[in-house]
Amino acid sequence: MKKKICLWGKGYGVERIIELCINAGVAISAILDNDPSKWGHKVLGVIVVPPDQLMELKPNYILVLSQAIDAITKQATGMGFPEESILHFNRNPWEALKRIGAEYAIYHYKYEWDGERLQKFFYEHAVIGKHIKRVSPKISKEQQIEIVSKLIKAFNIVRNDAKTVPEIYRVGENWGNVLKGTWGNFYELSEKNDIVNISEMLSNFCRNPLSHSIMGGEGVFNKFINHPGQESWLQHNLEVWMALVDGKASLDEVGMPPIGNPYGYNVDGQIINWNSFVNHGRAFRTLRLLSEEDHPVVAEIGGGFGGYAYNLLRNKRKLTYIDFDLPENLLIASYYLSMAYPEKNILIYDSESMIMDIAHLKKYDAVMMPNFMLPKLQDASVDLFINTISFSEMEYKTICEYFNQIDRIGSKYFYHENLACHPEYKGYPSAIFPQLNNFTQIFSSISPWQGFDAYALGHTYIERLFLHSR
């Protein structure tokens, strides 16, 4: 028998909830609301009525859309409605829809103009559940060992060379303490050249301490497992992403590849985690900015685990991506890209005397360099510099050094996304970053991604885009 529900609260997003329920075969009798001015209105054919009609309507459940869940629960139970049948959509949409017999989905709209009127199309993406089982790479063990052997050789060379570079390019106190506390066992394995165990650690980096500083590591993985329902960022970031790409991308483009044992929500068969929409959106905007360049060069300071680069390189456009980072993060990103694109030409560090002429680097799809190689790039050779999240975490003198290098090396665009505020933990707000001589800021906005946006108290980020002023 089809379950019958009433919604409570004619507010923001009610149209989407109605569409979700209708598509799931759930009958909506009415929308209850305490505001008399809304009574008699219809939303997608569903009428708004006063709450005193509740018992007459006899729904199986009330799905509350308002934030005033406690007051509404008291009002409904006071009329004799059972409290266990009152569900709060905003608190846990996944569980609420399961209770009424509907599979949970995330959703978005696409719009078209047919020459006379606006056409609106509603799209659902089934959230099948959390994907936490083991994800195996698509390449053989032998290939993995070959990749890891090459990368560990480079890693040990980088760590040794990093000891003698100028202090400004050495790891700061903030990052240094994090790495000491999370990478200790890995350092021992690398010194022993224990490729088998290193390969196993890298194959699981999304869920172990190796990714602690770049995607949360084991702690965030366990938090994800233990979260009782569907986290709100999934719907929020889908909508942000769809707006940023103008509806010109599909969900299969943002799924996490089987590298590092990723986890997330299973959405239409894709593994989606917080990084998925964010990295694809950043890469999409980069490619749009550089759409007129025949062979753009994109340089990232602090490439994290390689998610942004992965999305850049999966595009068929000819480009060169350069990553400058600390040895540990550089290793993870190099592993990620090498596993994802074994067919691509990726340059790995081997000595401080490497050729960094841009004509030479353009022979490669990706160039993975320690941060201290940045000054070796020639003037005006990079079309777009990018940094996300990490400038604010650096020592201030290091930020100044990077800005000086960007001012010298950049030729067209510079984009960064960093703290807008100064929270209790150490971090510099981008308002005090040094001025650039050769770039003019042309855009700034609070980050749209949930957890970094204007509602993220004490942790708000701002994105800024600069254009070379020549």
Task: Provide an overview of this structure.
By secondary structure, this protein is α/β, with parallel strands linked by helices. The protein has 16 helices and 18 strands. Helix 3 links the parallel strand 5 (61-64) and strand 6 (86-88). Helix 5 (141-161) crosses helix 8 (195-202) and helix 12 (274-289) packs across helix 13 (307-313). It is elongated and about 80 Å long. The termini are far apart.
The beta-strand count equals 18
Radius of gyration: 25 Å
Query: Average pLDDT, to the nearest integer?
Result: 92
Shape: elongated
Largest sheet: 8 strands, mixed
The low-confidence parts are none
Q: How much beta, percentage-wise?
A: 15-25%
From the N-terminal CA to the C-terminal CA, the straight-line distance is: 70 Å
Number of helices: 16
The level of helicity is: 25-40%
**Backbone structural class:** alpha/beta
Q: What brief labels describe this structure?
A:
eight-stranded mixed sheet, alpha/beta, elongated, 470 residues
Chart the SSEs and their pairings.
Layout: E1 4-8, H1 14-23, E2 27-32, E3 42-43, E4 46-49, H2 54-57, E5 61-64, H3 69-78, E6 86-88, H4 93-99, E7 105-113, E8 118-131, H5 141-161, H6 173-182, H7 184-191, H8 195-202, H9 212-215, H10 217-226, H11 233-244, E9 264-267, E10 270-272, H12 274-289, E11 297-301, H13 307-313, E12 320-325, H14 327-340, E13 346-348, H15 358-361, E14 366-370, E15 382-388, H16 396-409, E16 410-419, E17 439-446, E18 461-468
Parallel strand pairs: 1-2, 1-5, 2-4, 5-6, 11-12, 11-15, 12-14, 13-14, 15-16
Antiparallel strand pairs: 3-4, 7-8, 8-9, 9-10, 16-18, 17-18
Helix pairs in contact: 5-8, 5-14, 11-12, 12-13
